[in-house]
């Protein structure tokens, strides 16, 4: 799919890892972290497993994939697969987590190289997740869309 490992992100303390002795945690930050890890690995099935059946996933106005996508398959088909098609090494580096109950804000970075223009992208982003019952029910992206457009536009 063209996505790579998450950068220097640290796993939230006590993050869930499935083992014979321990089930994955449904704690909001840990669910979100699993989503980033699945995306980084290009594992769309694992990513879909973090999303509620009625998820609302909103990409910011002005972003190339702007809009709200519903259902786990809708998110992976219309967002993740398109990013993997249009960009080399698309990576969301989840740098810092701010958690308040079911709300998780992740301060992050996108890095990639646009396949058509060859231009590099390095932009700061913020992601707001709402996690209920161990699943992501809502996502909203905040990003400097002008920097994304510059990387997508030929000179």
Looking at this protein, list some descriptive labels.
155 residues; alpha+beta; Nuclear Transport Factor 2, Chain: A; 4 helices; disordered N terminus
In short:
The protein has 155 residues and is an alpha+beta fold. Helices cover 27% and strands 39% of the residues. The chain has a six-stranded mixed sheet with strand order 2-1-6-5-4-3.
Describe this structure in words.
- This protein is of the alpha+beta class and about 160 residues long.
- The protein has one domain: Roll (Nuclear Transport Factor 2, Chain: A), CATH 3.10.450.
- It is built from four helices and six strands.
- It has helices at about 30-40, 45-50, 70-85, 145-150; strands spanning about 50-60, 65-70, 85-100, 105-115, 120-130, 135-145.
- Mean pLDDT is about 85; it is low at about 1-20.
Q: Summarize the biggest pleated sheet.
A: 6 strands, mixed
pLDDT < 50 runs, ≥5 residues: 1-22
Helical content band: 25-40%
Number of helices: 4
Tally of domains: 1
From the alpha carbons, calculate the radius of gyration and give it in angstroms. 15 Å
Order of helices and strands: HHEEHEEEEH
In the CATH hierarchy, the third-tier topology is known as Nuclear Transport Factor 2, Chain: A
Which architecture name does CATH use? Roll
CATH top level label: Alpha Beta
Mean pLDDT: 87
Structural class: alpha+beta
Q: What is the spatial order of strands in the main beta sheet?
A: 2-1-6-5-4-3
Question: What does the overall shape look like?
Answer: globular
**Could you give the count of β-strands?**
6
Distance between the termini: 27 Å
Strand percentage lies at 35-45%
């Amino acid at each position: 799919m063209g996505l790579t490992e998450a950068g220097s992100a640290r796993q939230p303390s006590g993050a869930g890892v499935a083992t014979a002795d321990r089930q994955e945690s449904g704690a909001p930050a840990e669910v979100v972290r699993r989503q980033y890890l699945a995306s980084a690995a290009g594992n769309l099935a694992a990513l879909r497993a973090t999303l509620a059946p009625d998820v609302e996933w909103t990409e910011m106005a002005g972003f190339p994939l702007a809009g709200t996508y519903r259902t786990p398959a809708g998110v992976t088909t219309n967002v993740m697969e398109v990013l993997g098609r249009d960009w080399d090494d698309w990576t969301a580096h989840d740098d810092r987590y701010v958690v308040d109950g079911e709300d998780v804000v992740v301060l992050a970075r996108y890095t990639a190289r646009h396949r058509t223009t060859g231009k590099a992208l390095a932009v700061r982003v913020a992601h707001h997740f709402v996690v209920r019952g161990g699943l992501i029910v809502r996502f909203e992206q905040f990003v400097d869309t002008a920097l994304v457009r510059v990387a997508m536009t030929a000179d």
